[in-house]
Amino acid sequence: MRESKIIAFSFPVKMHAELKARLLYDEIPMTKFVRSCIEYYLSDDPQMMQFINKLKEEKKIQNKMKRKTNIKLIEKGKEIKQLFGLDSNEIEDIYDVLEGDIKEWPEI
Fold it and tell me: End-to-end distance of the chain based on CA atoms, in angstroms?
């Protein structure tokens, strides 16, 4: 099985030329640019999330109420994470312990 996938999309020729020129000016390869954008998005980078929220608002991707609710939930999640001081490995460990405890109780 392949370790990577190819993503293809199309957009106007003029926009492609402008993007290519800007990336060339900034000396950023297009693949590195796209991969980095995806990595920042998946890692919940604060600046990328700010951009995503702006995008949703400008392009009317979600209604205002849904966007506000999502932002509140994300902030609450950060507060809880900070309150308990847990990183993703510790959270995985907790799930493993709980899973082991549940197996010991066959009636559950």
Answer: 38
